[in-house]
Design brief:
Number of domains: 2
Number of helices: 14
Structural class: mainly alpha
Distance between the termini: 94 Å
Length: 427
């Protein structure tokens, strides 16, 4: 081999190594190349959020002190045999009400404690941990929202916890550095050659495909909820037609073909079964049946407790549990959960990740706002349905709107499987 041949061969060998490096740097010399697996540096928390963190610390401390003062006052009242009904509007503290108040106090204490933790983490620039705490606070606020609805109806509950829930959703999305990393990685990958795009494909398969657990982000879980709300209505409609009951409107929200029990059920299945979706189908089936049956029982109880609504009644059927769930429907939940985690979940996750990056967050935000409005208005309409049964007149503009647009006849036609009996409610 001549000297010229050696030079040409050396150039050919060296070229593929040098070209991607230059492209990875964006053709800017002197900047280090980000190697595979290297984390994208997280941005610091902005100063306004740090100020907010300080306020959260103060707020949480004040709430804990107020809660301790209330608990101490109740203890002293019982010790000295003081009648405290005069401080509760004359409400008798029966067992269900007392349990409800204890749960509300416990949730308030937990939220206050996590508020302090969130504030400390924001001040210390811990973005990822702050996002995790914000996610926990969001879950606790949802639980408190349910408890407030049971205690005082929808209007007060939405005023007390509705906006904080929305704020925590936005905050955890903003704080989670993985979202910023995904966007930054996407911008970098656009500059790479076909070899780099193949590495991106392999990384995507590693993260979202195969038998490994999926990465459960808010984006994934939200679209799981929306899609399964629609799939639930389709399944219920087909089931009614097959059994000869004819067409029935199986929606659970005022607008749209959405059945939230299937949406929330799918989210619970995803969270609970994601880590074992490659395991034996038998334990997945039984765990799905347990999750679905427990959730169905809880929803039925809450609807009757808060609004006097009987959404379904399985009394007298095989393995009926207080008429709120039964063996057949628990088995159906088991089959649905198994099919979901084994087959449908990978397809759905792959589908939603095909949404273009420049549209992904805008579409998700718009859909989230619409679902919150629809869900909130549905709860208010339930509350007015109950209030009309007990003779409570509409006071606010929202209540008047519900009375005008969603009267009893309209609600009965929209929610054909539900019946209203205010005497069943405990509030």
């Amino acid at each position: 081999m001549t000297t010229d041949d050696k030079q040409v061969a050396g150039a050919v060998v060296d070229a593929p190594q040098a070209e991607p490096a230059a492209e990875a740097q964006g053709c800017e010399l002197g900047k280090p190349i980000m190697t595979e697996g290297q984390a994208i540096p997280a941005k610091k928390v902005p100063v306004p959020l740090k100020v907010f963190g300080i306020l959260m610390i103060i707020w949480g401390a004040v709430e804990i002190l107020k809660l301790l003062a209330v608990v101490l006052a109740i203890i002293l009242a019982f010790v000295f045999n003081v009648d405290i009904t005069q401080y509760t509007g004359g409400t008798s503290l029966q067992k269900p009400v007392l349990v409800l108040l204890i749960c509300l106090a416990a949730s308030s204490g937990l939220i206050a404690g996590f508020d302090i933790a969130l504030g400390v983490l924001l001040v210390k620039d811990k973005r990822r941990h702050s996002a995790q705490i914000a996610r926990t606070i969001m879950v606790l606020l949802v639980a408190q929202l349910i408890l407030n609805i049971l205690n005082s109806g929808v209007n007060h509950a939405l005023e007390a916890t509705g906006l904080p829930i929305v704020f925590m959703i936005v905050l955890q999305i903003y704080l989670d550095p993985s979202l910023a990393e995904e966007r930054a990685l996407e911008r970098k990958l656009r500059k790479l050659d076909e070899r780099s795009r193949e590495e991106e494909r392999l990384e995507h398969l590693k993260k979202y495909g195969g038998k490994a657990p999926f990465k459960l982000t808010f984006f994934n879980l939200f679209w799981t909820f929306v899609i399964c709300c629609v799939l639930g209505v389709i399944i219920e409609t087909i089931y009614c037609l097959v059994r000869g009951a004819g067409y029935m409107d199986r929606a659970g929200m005022l607008y749209g073909p959405f059945s939230p029990i299937y949406g929330f059920g799918a989210v619970l299945m995803t969270i609970g079964l994601n880590g074992i979706r490659d395991k034996n189908p038998i334990p997945i089936f039984f765990l799905s049946a347990l999750i679905g049956g427990a959730f169905e029982f809880l929803v039925s109880y809450l609807l009757e407790f808060a609004f006097g609504i009987t959404a379904w009644d399985y009394s007298g059927t095989f393995l009926s549990i207080d008429g709120r769930t039964n063996g057949a429907f628990m088995a159906a939940w088991g089959i649905l959960g198994l099919v979901w985690v084994k087959y449908l979940m990978p397809i759905i996750f792959d589908l939603v990740h095909k949404i273009p990056w420049n549209w992904r967050y805008a579409v998700t935000t718009v859909a989230l706002v619409l679902m919150i409005i629809d869900g909130g208005l549905t709860l208010v309409s339930y509350d007015r349905w109950f209030s009309r049964q007990v003779g409570i007149p509409a006071e606010t503009a929202v209540e008047q709107f519900c009375d005008e647009h969603y009267p009893d006849a309209w609600m009965e036609h929209r929610f054909q499987t539900m019946t209203m009996n205010a005497e069943n409610a405990t509030r």
